[in-house]
Design a protein that fits this description.
Blueprint: H1 3-9, H2 14-18, H3 26-40, H4 50-64, H5 67-76, H6 120-127, E1 146-148, E2 152-158, H7 160-165, E3 167-173, E4 176-178, E5 194-195, E6 204-208, E7 214-218, E8 227-228, E9 243-245, E10 248-254, E11 263-266, E12 284-286, E13 290-296, E14 303-305, E15 308-316, H8 317-322, E16 324-329, E17 334-339, E18 348-351, E19 369-376, H9 383-396, H10 412-416, H11 431-440, H12 444-448, H13 454-472
Amino acid sequence: MSRLEDARCATKNPYTVLGVDKNASASEIKKAYYSLAKKYHPDTNKDAKAKDQFSDAQSAYELLSDPKKKEVWDQYGAAAFDQGAGFDSSGGAAGGPFGGAAGASGFQGFSGGFGADINFEDLFGAFTGGGRRNRGSRQSPFQEEVLMGQNIEVQTNVSFMDAAKGISKDISINPLVQCKTCSGRGMKKGQSRSTCQKCGGTGTRVHFVQAGFQMASTCETCGGQGMAIPRGGECGPCGGNGVVRQRKTVNVDIPGGIEDGMRLRVSGEGDAAPTGTAANPNVRSTHGDLYVFIRVTPDSTFGRSGADVLYTASIPLTTAVLGGEVTIPTLNSDVKLKIATGTGTGDKVTLGGMGMPRLGGRRSAAGDLRVEFRVVMPKYLSANQRTILEMLADELGDQNAKRIMNVGSSSPANSSKTEKPPASGHENEGFLKSAWHRLTHQHDDNSVKEAPSSSDKVNKTEDEEPKKAAGSR
């Protein structure tokens, strides 16, 4: 083997690589590694040497995160880890100090060689500013400063008018709050956390499988924190979590114009963070948020399309034909609306600014009230109503309309007689008015006075004849 190959195979001092002291704690070593991994990761650092530095940091952390390997290094140095030294912390066959083939490297659990349990979601989430520490998740150096509580989601129903005008509503929730008995520490008074005996404070358990590969998992005893509460030292009310359930009422302002299915966020009204499970019970924490899903109850009068309010106005046939004025409701009060002559079903008018408030718009901005007309057709007609409509059909020249009353038609016997002249004073009446008068017999009294009877004529003749005889003598 050449000297160059010997130099490549020599194990570097892990303390020097990570920049920590020999007496550094497990959390300090982990934090130092994450800092270097973030700095030299090939995906974020395009320097040609970054890949080698990233690999060195991996190897160094891999060695120091295992208590047995760290103890061997502190006692024997690099001689116990150079190629061919034969050290195997698992007591199995000789091989490289990291459980794989000599000189192997990479990400254990993905392609082998990375013995420690590294949460890459936390690591790369820190590059983009993402990630939230959830309850029971492993501790990450990038998120140690603030421990976040879980969000709470609830649903509430509001009426159509409340959604239009806005309302303040009380909502009952049952969030996690800090335990008053232990003040969130999760321990009885006088107790303190100690290094987890199962994982040695690393928060991970390393398992060796065949072919020298290693697999790491979160320590089930401490939940990946590296620190554990002594048996029997947990706080009774919270069970060591530092938080308990407590019912409370939150007042939520629902703005006018909200739509069905929208969600409101009330900051800081979610669950408290379970500080009792953290390695540091005094870690800074913040509550999660409360999300309120809105369901709007349908209204029997109005409909909705975005910020526009929809209304269907029913009008009588006569109003639709002749025109007129009707009263329609709005979100605030009733208004008068003029109906144009000849309005038909499906015709629409728009009243600007009488709709829903527009969320996110100007304070005075609002949608429109869109009114659609529906002409109400009578199902049953009286004799007079049908007569009038048949007369209207005659006037309009509608030959398709069904006739029953036969207004304006005459019998064969009457057709041969000479039509009587209209009564005095009614010569200039229109067709409809004249037909109405004939229908109601308003001219019958006047027609009787038009000519004397035949008996009157006979008596008049008899009276005149004696006068003529006397005159001749």
